[in-house]
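Exercise 7. Given the encoded structure of a 344-residue chain, write a plausible sequence.
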Protein backbone atom coordinates (compact mmCIF):
# COMPACT_ATOMS: atom_id res chain seq x y z
CA UNK A 1 0.00 0.00 0.00
CA UNK A 2 1.09 3.59 -0.60
CA UNK A 3 2.02 5.71 2.42
CA UNK A 4 3.49 9.13 3.20
CA UNK A 5 6.64 8.39 5.18
CA UNK A 6 8.69 10.94 7.17
CA UNK A 7 12.46 10.48 6.84
CA UNK A 8 13.61 13.84 8.18
CA UNK A 9 13.20 17.58 7.90
CA UNK A 10 11.67 18.50 4.51
CA UNK A 11 11.89 14.81 3.58
CA UNK A 12 8.50 13.09 3.31
CA UNK A 13 8.35 10.37 0.67
CA UNK A 14 5.50 8.47 -0.95
CA UNK A 15 6.49 4.82 -0.60
CA UNK A 16 5.11 1.29 -0.83
CA UNK A 17 4.85 -0.25 2.63
CA UNK A 18 3.50 -3.68 3.68
CA UNK A 19 -0.15 -4.02 4.67
CA UNK A 20 -0.69 -5.03 8.31
CA UNK A 21 -0.72 -8.72 9.16
CA UNK A 22 -3.65 -10.35 10.98
CA UNK A 23 -4.16 -8.68 14.38
CA UNK A 24 -3.63 -10.51 17.66
CA UNK A 25 -4.68 -9.91 21.26
CA UNK A 26 -6.22 -6.44 21.58
CA UNK A 27 -4.94 -5.24 18.21
CA UNK A 28 -7.37 -3.80 15.65
CA UNK A 29 -6.68 -3.23 11.96
CA UNK A 30 -8.53 -0.18 10.65
CA UNK A 31 -8.99 1.19 7.15
CA UNK A 32 -8.45 4.94 7.17
CA UNK A 33 -11.24 7.07 5.69
CA UNK A 34 -9.92 10.61 6.25
CA UNK A 35 -6.77 11.84 7.99
CA UNK A 36 -6.02 15.50 8.70
CA UNK A 37 -2.61 17.10 8.38
CA UNK A 38 -1.95 18.36 11.90
CA UNK A 39 0.11 21.38 12.88
CA UNK A 40 2.37 18.89 14.65
CA UNK A 41 2.93 17.10 11.33
CA UNK A 42 3.80 20.45 9.77
CA UNK A 43 6.28 21.22 12.56
CA UNK A 44 7.93 17.82 11.97
CA UNK A 45 8.15 18.58 8.24
CA UNK A 46 9.62 22.06 8.73
CA UNK A 47 11.74 21.65 11.86
CA UNK A 48 11.63 18.03 13.03
CA UNK A 49 12.30 15.82 14.75
CA UNK A 50 10.34 17.38 17.61
CA UNK A 51 7.94 14.74 18.91
CA UNK A 52 9.34 12.07 16.59
CA UNK A 53 12.08 10.24 18.54
CA UNK A 54 15.49 11.34 17.27
CA UNK A 55 16.58 7.70 16.96
CA UNK A 56 13.69 6.90 14.59
CA UNK A 57 14.81 6.94 10.95
CA UNK A 58 11.34 6.74 9.38
CA UNK A 59 7.66 6.76 10.36
CA UNK A 60 4.33 6.89 8.53
CA UNK A 61 2.78 10.20 9.58
CA UNK A 62 -0.90 10.88 10.35
CA UNK A 63 -2.78 10.88 13.65
CA UNK A 64 -6.04 12.83 13.10
CA UNK A 65 -8.23 10.19 11.49
CA UNK A 66 -11.54 8.45 11.10
CA UNK A 67 -11.66 4.82 10.02
CA UNK A 68 -13.59 1.58 9.71
CA UNK A 69 -12.67 -1.57 11.59
CA UNK A 70 -11.39 -4.28 9.23
CA UNK A 71 -10.12 -7.04 11.52
CA UNK A 72 -9.80 -7.62 15.28
CA UNK A 73 -7.62 -9.71 17.54
CA UNK A 74 -8.92 -12.57 19.68
CA UNK A 75 -9.15 -10.42 22.83
CA UNK A 76 -11.06 -7.51 21.27
CA UNK A 77 -14.55 -6.99 22.76
CA UNK A 78 -15.30 -3.30 22.17
CA UNK A 79 -15.53 -3.18 18.37
CA UNK A 80 -16.27 -5.47 15.44
CA UNK A 81 -15.47 -5.35 11.71
CA UNK A 82 -17.47 -2.65 9.96
CA UNK A 83 -17.70 -0.29 12.95
CA UNK A 84 -17.02 3.39 12.25
CA UNK A 85 -14.47 4.78 14.70
CA UNK A 86 -12.09 7.59 15.52
CA UNK A 87 -8.70 6.77 16.98
CA UNK A 88 -7.03 8.34 20.00
CA UNK A 89 -3.38 8.46 18.89
CA UNK A 90 -2.03 8.01 22.43
CA UNK A 91 -1.03 4.39 23.09
CA UNK A 92 -0.64 4.24 26.86
CA UNK A 93 0.20 1.74 29.58
CA UNK A 94 -2.90 2.39 31.78
CA UNK A 95 -0.71 1.59 34.81
CA UNK A 96 1.57 4.57 35.57
CA UNK A 97 0.63 7.37 37.98
CA UNK A 98 -0.50 9.70 35.18
CA UNK A 99 -2.63 7.07 33.44
CA UNK A 100 -4.37 6.32 36.76
CA UNK A 101 -5.27 10.03 36.94
CA UNK A 102 -6.66 10.00 33.40
CA UNK A 103 -3.77 12.18 32.14
CA UNK A 104 -3.08 9.95 29.16
CA UNK A 105 -0.90 12.49 27.33
CA UNK A 106 1.63 12.25 30.18
CA UNK A 107 1.87 8.44 30.32
CA UNK A 108 5.40 7.44 31.27
CA UNK A 109 5.34 4.79 28.51
CA UNK A 110 3.55 6.86 25.87
CA UNK A 111 3.71 5.91 22.20
CA UNK A 112 2.16 8.20 19.57
CA UNK A 113 0.47 6.94 16.42
CA UNK A 114 1.90 8.84 13.45
CA UNK A 115 4.92 10.08 15.40
CA UNK A 116 6.61 7.17 17.17
CA UNK A 117 4.34 4.46 15.66
CA UNK A 118 3.25 4.20 12.03
CA UNK A 119 0.14 6.29 11.44
CA UNK A 120 -2.72 6.98 9.08
CA UNK A 121 -1.23 8.43 5.89
CA UNK A 122 -1.72 4.90 4.58
CA UNK A 123 -4.78 2.81 3.74
CA UNK A 124 -4.49 0.59 6.81
CA UNK A 125 -2.93 0.91 10.24
CA UNK A 126 -2.94 -1.05 13.51
CA UNK A 127 -4.12 0.28 16.86
CA UNK A 128 -5.37 -1.12 20.17
CA UNK A 129 -9.01 -1.41 21.10
CA UNK A 130 -8.66 1.03 24.03
CA UNK A 131 -7.74 3.75 21.50
CA UNK A 132 -11.08 3.55 19.67
CA UNK A 133 -14.18 5.71 20.10
CA UNK A 134 -17.32 4.79 18.18
CA UNK A 135 -18.52 7.31 15.62
CA UNK A 136 -22.33 7.64 15.62
CA UNK A 137 -24.35 7.96 12.41
CA UNK A 138 -24.98 11.65 13.16
CA UNK A 139 -21.25 12.43 12.79
CA UNK A 140 -19.64 12.28 9.34
CA UNK A 141 -16.29 10.69 8.58
CA UNK A 142 -14.90 14.15 7.77
CA UNK A 143 -16.00 15.53 11.14
CA UNK A 144 -14.52 12.43 12.74
CA UNK A 145 -11.12 13.36 11.36
CA UNK A 146 -11.41 16.66 13.26
CA UNK A 147 -12.09 15.11 16.67
CA UNK A 148 -8.39 15.08 17.60
CA UNK A 149 -7.72 18.84 17.24
CA UNK A 150 -11.10 19.59 18.81
CA UNK A 151 -10.15 17.40 21.79
CA UNK A 152 -6.92 19.39 22.17
CA UNK A 153 -8.90 22.60 22.58
CA UNK A 154 -11.62 20.95 24.68
CA UNK A 155 -8.84 20.15 27.18
CA UNK A 156 -8.25 23.89 27.50
CA UNK A 157 -11.97 24.46 28.08
CA UNK A 158 -11.88 22.06 31.04
CA UNK A 159 -9.40 24.24 32.96
CA UNK A 160 -11.18 25.89 35.93
CA UNK A 161 -10.39 29.45 34.89
CA UNK A 162 -11.72 28.81 31.41
CA UNK A 163 -14.95 27.12 32.49
CA UNK A 164 -15.87 30.20 34.52
CA UNK A 165 -14.93 32.73 31.82
CA UNK A 166 -17.31 35.33 30.41
CA UNK A 167 -14.91 36.29 27.66
CA UNK A 168 -11.80 34.94 26.01
CA UNK A 169 -9.39 35.89 23.26
CA UNK A 170 -7.89 33.36 20.84
CA UNK A 171 -4.57 34.47 19.38
CA UNK A 172 -4.02 32.92 15.98
CA UNK A 173 -6.81 31.53 13.79
CA UNK A 174 -4.93 28.56 12.44
CA UNK A 175 -6.53 25.10 12.71
CA UNK A 176 -6.07 24.87 16.50
CA UNK A 177 -7.11 28.48 17.05
CA UNK A 178 -10.26 27.95 14.99
CA UNK A 179 -10.98 24.75 16.91
CA UNK A 180 -10.58 26.80 20.09
CA UNK A 181 -13.18 29.29 18.85
CA UNK A 182 -15.62 26.48 18.05
CA UNK A 183 -15.17 24.61 21.34
CA UNK A 184 -15.26 27.81 23.42
CA UNK A 185 -18.62 28.73 21.90
CA UNK A 186 -19.91 25.17 22.30
CA UNK A 187 -18.85 25.20 25.97
CA UNK A 188 -20.71 28.43 26.69
CA UNK A 189 -18.11 31.21 26.69
CA UNK A 190 -20.19 34.25 25.85
CA UNK A 191 -17.73 36.45 23.96
CA UNK A 192 -14.82 34.95 22.03
CA UNK A 193 -12.49 37.48 20.41
CA UNK A 194 -9.80 36.53 17.90
CA UNK A 195 -6.50 38.15 16.91
CA UNK A 196 -5.71 37.22 13.29
CA UNK A 197 -4.33 39.19 10.34
CA UNK A 198 -5.06 36.78 7.45
CA UNK A 199 -8.48 37.60 5.91
CA UNK A 200 -9.68 34.06 5.07
CA UNK A 201 -8.87 32.79 8.53
CA UNK A 202 -10.48 35.85 10.10
CA UNK A 203 -13.66 35.12 8.11
CA UNK A 204 -13.64 31.50 9.29
CA UNK A 205 -13.29 32.68 12.89
CA UNK A 206 -16.42 34.81 12.47
CA UNK A 207 -18.25 31.88 10.86
CA UNK A 208 -17.39 29.70 13.85
CA UNK A 209 -18.78 32.23 16.32
CA UNK A 210 -16.14 34.85 17.09
CA UNK A 211 -17.72 38.03 18.42
CA UNK A 212 -14.94 40.22 17.02
CA UNK A 213 -11.76 39.66 15.00
CA UNK A 214 -8.85 42.05 15.48
CA UNK A 215 -6.32 42.51 12.68
CA UNK A 216 -2.98 43.13 14.45
CA UNK A 217 -1.45 44.55 11.27
CA UNK A 218 -3.82 47.53 11.39
CA UNK A 219 -5.15 47.67 14.96
CA UNK A 220 -3.52 47.57 18.37
CA UNK A 221 -4.80 44.35 19.90
CA UNK A 222 -4.20 45.57 23.44
CA UNK A 223 -6.29 48.72 22.96
CA UNK A 224 -8.99 46.80 21.08
CA UNK A 225 -9.37 44.20 23.84
CA UNK A 226 -9.51 46.89 26.52
CA UNK A 227 -12.27 48.64 24.55
CA UNK A 228 -14.22 45.40 24.13
CA UNK A 229 -13.96 44.45 27.81
CA UNK A 230 -14.60 47.79 29.47
CA UNK A 231 -10.94 48.40 30.22
CA UNK A 232 -10.16 45.21 32.15
CA UNK A 233 -8.86 42.63 29.65
CA UNK A 234 -10.19 39.14 28.98
CA UNK A 235 -10.74 36.45 31.59
CA UNK A 236 -8.81 33.96 29.46
CA UNK A 237 -6.27 34.33 26.65
CA UNK A 238 -5.65 31.23 24.51
CA UNK A 239 -2.33 31.41 22.63
CA UNK A 240 -2.47 29.12 19.57
CA UNK A 241 0.58 30.20 17.56
CA UNK A 242 3.69 29.23 19.50
CA UNK A 243 5.75 32.40 19.04
CA UNK A 244 7.39 34.41 21.81
CA UNK A 245 5.70 37.61 20.58
CA UNK A 246 2.20 36.09 20.70
CA UNK A 247 2.86 34.42 24.04
CA UNK A 248 3.74 37.82 25.50
CA UNK A 249 0.69 39.30 23.79
CA UNK A 250 -1.50 36.67 25.45
CA UNK A 251 -0.14 37.66 28.88
CA UNK A 252 -0.78 41.32 28.03
CA UNK A 253 -4.42 40.76 26.98
CA UNK A 254 -5.32 38.76 30.09
CA UNK A 255 -6.97 40.77 32.86
CA UNK A 256 -5.37 41.04 36.29
CA UNK A 257 -6.04 37.76 38.05
CA UNK A 258 -6.97 36.07 34.77
CA UNK A 259 -5.65 32.98 33.00
CA UNK A 260 -3.24 32.73 30.07
CA UNK A 261 -3.18 29.34 28.33
CA UNK A 262 -0.36 28.36 25.97
CA UNK A 263 -1.58 25.81 23.41
CA UNK A 264 0.77 26.65 20.53
CA UNK A 265 3.98 24.62 20.27
CA UNK A 266 7.07 26.85 20.09
CA UNK A 267 9.93 25.73 17.86
CA UNK A 268 12.11 28.26 19.73
CA UNK A 269 11.17 29.56 23.18
CA UNK A 270 12.64 32.24 25.43
CA UNK A 271 12.02 35.84 26.35
CA UNK A 272 8.59 35.32 27.91
CA UNK A 273 7.56 38.29 30.10
CA UNK A 274 6.95 36.42 33.34
CA UNK A 275 7.36 39.58 35.42
CA UNK A 276 4.09 40.88 34.05
CA UNK A 277 2.37 37.65 35.08
CA UNK A 278 3.73 38.08 38.60
CA UNK A 279 2.97 41.78 39.05
CA UNK A 280 -0.56 41.44 37.66
CA UNK A 281 -1.34 38.20 39.49
CA UNK A 282 -1.95 36.25 36.30
CA UNK A 283 -1.94 32.49 36.02
CA UNK A 284 -0.11 30.82 33.12
CA UNK A 285 -0.95 27.27 32.10
CA UNK A 286 0.41 25.02 29.40
CA UNK A 287 -2.09 22.81 27.62
CA UNK A 288 -1.38 19.77 25.45
CA UNK A 289 -3.23 16.63 24.52
CA UNK A 290 -6.36 15.38 26.24
CA UNK A 291 -7.52 13.53 29.31
CA UNK A 292 -9.34 10.19 29.37
CA UNK A 293 -12.96 10.58 28.28
CA UNK A 294 -12.61 13.93 26.51
CA UNK A 295 -12.82 12.41 23.03
CA UNK A 296 -16.27 11.08 23.86
CA UNK A 297 -17.32 14.56 24.97
CA UNK A 298 -16.26 15.96 21.58
CA UNK A 299 -18.12 13.20 19.70
CA UNK A 300 -21.24 13.89 21.77
CA UNK A 301 -21.00 17.63 21.02
CA UNK A 302 -20.67 16.88 17.31
CA UNK A 303 -23.63 14.47 17.37
CA UNK A 304 -25.79 17.03 19.19
CA UNK A 305 -25.07 19.75 16.62
CA UNK A 306 -23.64 22.11 19.24
CA UNK A 307 -20.25 21.81 17.60
CA UNK A 308 -19.82 22.12 13.82
CA UNK A 309 -16.19 22.31 12.67
CA UNK A 310 -16.80 21.62 8.97
CA UNK A 311 -15.89 25.21 7.85
CA UNK A 312 -12.29 24.40 8.84
CA UNK A 313 -11.87 21.92 5.97
CA UNK A 314 -10.47 23.83 2.99
CA UNK A 315 -8.79 21.04 1.01
CA UNK A 316 -9.35 17.33 0.38
CA UNK A 317 -6.53 15.41 -1.31
CA UNK A 318 -5.32 11.88 -2.03
CA UNK A 319 -2.25 10.49 -0.28
CA UNK A 320 -0.22 10.85 -3.51
CA UNK A 321 -0.57 14.62 -3.14
CA UNK A 322 0.42 14.91 0.53
CA UNK A 323 3.72 16.69 -0.04
CA UNK A 324 2.88 18.92 -3.05
CA UNK A 325 -0.73 19.79 -2.24
CA UNK A 326 -0.59 19.29 1.51
CA UNK A 327 2.58 20.26 3.33
CA UNK A 328 3.95 22.72 0.77
CA UNK A 329 0.61 24.48 0.42
CA UNK A 330 0.27 24.77 4.20
CA UNK A 331 3.69 26.44 4.27
CA UNK A 332 3.19 28.71 1.25
CA UNK A 333 -0.53 29.55 1.40
CA UNK A 334 -1.39 29.91 5.07
CA UNK A 335 -4.47 32.03 4.50
CA UNK A 336 -6.57 29.94 2.12
CA UNK A 337 -5.19 26.56 3.24
CA UNK A 338 -6.39 25.78 6.78
CA UNK A 339 -7.29 22.13 7.36
CA UNK A 340 -6.23 19.60 4.75
CA UNK A 341 -7.89 16.17 4.84
CA UNK A 342 -6.07 13.26 3.21
CA UNK A 343 -7.85 10.24 1.69
CA UNK A 344 -5.37 7.35 1.89
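Solution.
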Amino acid sequence: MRAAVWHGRHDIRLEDVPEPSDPSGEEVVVEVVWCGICGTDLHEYVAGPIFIPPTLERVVLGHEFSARVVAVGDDVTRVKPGDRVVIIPHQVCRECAFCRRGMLQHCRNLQLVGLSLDGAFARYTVVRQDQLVHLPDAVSDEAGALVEPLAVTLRAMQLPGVRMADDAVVIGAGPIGLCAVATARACGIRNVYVVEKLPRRAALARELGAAEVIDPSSDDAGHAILDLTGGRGVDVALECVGLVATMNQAIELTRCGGLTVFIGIAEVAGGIDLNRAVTENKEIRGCIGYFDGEWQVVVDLLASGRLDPTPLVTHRIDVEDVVREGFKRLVEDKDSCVKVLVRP
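Remark. The chain has two domains: 2-146+309-343, 151-286. Students should compare their own answers with the one above.
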